[in-house]
Write a structure and sequence with these properties.
Blueprint: E1 8-19, E2 22-33, E3 37-41, H1 48-56, E4 63-68, E5 71-72, E6 83-87, H2 98-108, H3 113-126, H4 142-154, E7 160-164, H5 172-189, E8 193-197, H6 200-206, E9 209-214, E10 217-222, H7 224-229, H8 234-240
Parallel strand pairs: 3-8, 3-9, 6-7, 7-8
Antiparallel strand pairs: 1-2, 1-4, 4-5, 9-10
Bound molecules: adenosine-5'-diphosphate and magnesium ion.
Residues 48-49 line the site of magnesium ion.
Amino acid sequence: MAEATGTSILELKAVTKKFGPVEVIRGIDLDVRQGEFIVFVGPSGCGKSTLLRIIAGLEDASAGEVWIAGQEVSSTPPANRGIAMVFQTYALYPHLSVRDNMRLGLKQAGTPAAEIDRRVEVASTMLSLDPYLKRFPAELSGGQRQRVAIGRAVVREPTLFLFDEPLSNLDAGLRVNTRLEIAQLHRRLNATMIYVTHDQVEAMTLADRIVVLSAGRIEQVGAPMELYNNPANEFVAGFIGSPK
Ligand code: ADP
Ligand code: MG
């Protein structure tokens, strides 16, 4: 695991989200430090994706504040938040080659061509994508596509990576491999990552700290073994799989 330092990368302060009258995020406070691997777990519909989308700026919070690297970001557009997000569905551009999928975001950000090439080379080596750079998404397996999506995040050199159930569309074997690759990436880049899953094994193996969510609230935050040995309530115990 990467070494977490004192620098605050993300602060959520009383973040709330309503869709119409329905409050789906209910006063979330959280502080994430440089180098941490944070996993959000909780059942389907508890608000994991909504919370990630609020951090990324794809949804506005109804109340509360989001701070990224010491800045309150309510008026910062998603592209300027220093965040890269990886989705369950990969979200690759079908008409672009692997190389161009990885280049596009950097081009749009005005990164010089030589710097784009350097970053794509580093990321594709790191993710074993070199043989596929000229191929198109339709010519790749699901695992390869997800590696491209991860590569596209890596080249942006984000302050914070967000992963929304990145392994859900992969079969069991690939899920393990891709999980190990993400863990390795975290170490090598000393990156800060927030990773959403409803899978306890993923949470236990990847996290420095697990955030257990239920119905838009945090039930407990702690290191995997802390939650396992000392769950705050029945819900956490049931989720992490240790009898209370
Ligand atoms: P999770 O990712 O944990 O499965 P979500 O964040 O997707 O949960 O959803 C949390 C709750 O918010 C769910 O009840 C969902 O139906 C609701 N929700 C999510 N997005 C919207 C939306 N755009 N409009 C209305 N309700 C939404
Ligand atoms: Mg979700």
